[in-house]
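User: Fold this, then the next.

Assistant: Folding the first:
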Amino acid sequence: MRGGFRVHVVSDVHGNSEGLRRAGDGADALVCLGDLVLFLDYHDHSRGIFPELFGEANADRLVELRTARRFEEARDLARSLWQGIDRNAAIESAVRKQYAELFAAFPTPTYATYGNVDIPHLWSEYAAAGTTVLDGERVEIGGRVFGFVGGGLRTPMRTPYEIDDEEYAAKIEALGEVDVLCSHIPPDVPELCYDTVARRFERGSAALLDAIRATRPAYALFGHVHQPLARRMRIGATECVNVGHFASSGTPWVLEW
C-alpha cells in the first residue's frame, strides 16, 4: 500500500479534456497551472476556437504571421475576419463550451490557477465544490504550503489574462514563504523561457525569480513554454520545473513526499 502524499501537476491543458479525466488517477490531489482554453492549436491548425469560426486556411495564415513575429499583420488579418461579428460574445460562447467539458473532468480535490489564455471571471461558474481556484493565494496540501500566481505578463500577443508587472509582483509578494511556488509562467531565466520549436523567448517573471532567491521554496512549478530549452534547473535551494505541455503529452508531473 502506498504511503506518503502524491500530487499530480498539469499545465497548458488546451482542450485536452480526455487526458484531464485521467490526470488525477493514483494521486491524492491534482494541481492545474492554467491555460485550459484552446484558441488555436499550433500543431494542428484545424483545432480550436479560431479555425472553428474562420476555417483552417485562415488559421494557417495566422500561425505563419505570428511565428514570423509579424504581429501587426496578424492583428490586421484578425480584424478583417472579425468584421461584422461580436467578437467578445463569440469567444465567450466558445470558451464556455470548453470550460463546461474541462471543469467537469477535474477530479476531487483539484487546486487550479489561471493561465494567460484563460478568462478568470468565468471560472466561478464552472468550478465545482471539489475545485479550489487560487490566484495570489496559499493553501495547505498534504501538510505542505502551496502558493499560486495566475496569468501572464503583457506581450504583443495580447492574450486574455495578461497583467502589468507591478500587479503580478504584488500577487507574489502576498504569498510570503511557501514550500511550493506554483505559477503559469516561468521565472525570468533564459533557458526556462526559450521555446525551441517556436524559436522565441516567452515572457518570464523577474519578480518570480526574486521570490525564489529570497524565500527559497523547495519547488517552483510552472508551464507556459511548451518546448523549453531546459525543463528543470536548480536556483539555490529551489528545484524549478516546467511540468510539461499537457495538451500533447496527457501526462501529469508527479510530486511525492
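Now the next one, as you asked:
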Amino acid sequence: MSKILMIVSAATSLELADGSAHPTGFWAEEVAASHKALRAGGAQVDIATPGAVRPTVDALSLDARGGVSEEDAQEFRAYLDSIDDQLAHPLPLAEVRPSDYDALYLPGGHAPMADLAHDADLGRLLNEADARGTTVAALCHGVAALLSATTPDGAFTFAGRTLTSFADEEENQGGLGENTPFYLESLLRERGATVETGAPWSDTVVVDGNLITGQNPQSSTATAEATLKALAER
C-alpha cells in the first residue's frame, strides 16, 4: 500500500496587497476530492499541518460565493466530516520524515500563500523528497507551497521544471484579483519555472518527472489520479 502525506495549510488569515486581512483556509474540494480519490486508489493518506494545528476550511469553498453548488458543498462537507478525526489530529509537519512516504500532496485554497509558501520545515521536506525522487504533487494555490523549497544559494528548487498552478487569469476572474498578495503563475515564472496553464477553470494537470501539478479545484481528482498512476509505475 502506498503512503501519501497530504500537507494542508493551517492559516486562517491572509494579508492582502492593500494590507487588509482576508479570512482563508483550505479549499474543500481540493482536500475532499483528492483524499477520496487517493484512498479509493488504495493509498494510505496521512495529514500534516504546521504545528499540528487543525486546518480550517475556507467558507467560500462551501458556498455559492465560491462558485460551489449546494449539492457539491453537501458532498464535500460529508466527506470532510468522515475524515474529521484526521483533520482534528494532524501530524506536526516539523516531525515528518519524507522517507516514510511515497508521495507528498499539497492541496490549495489561498491559505498556503500565507504559511506554506515560506515554511522552512516544508522546504526541507520538499528538497529531501525531490532529491530522493519521491512524488511531489501540488494543486491550485497549493503550488505556492513549492516556493518554500530553495537551494543553498537561494534559488528555487523547482526552477527549470514544467508545472501548472492557479492561473493569473483565474485569479482575476474568480480569485482575489489585484488585491492578491502575489500572482502565483507570474511569481513561479519569475523564480524560473516553466508554467503551462490550460483554459480558465479547465481540468489541467502537468507531469514533469516526479513533480505533478494541477491548475485549480476542477483538477483535484485528476491530480490525485495522476499521483496514483505515478506511484503504480514506480
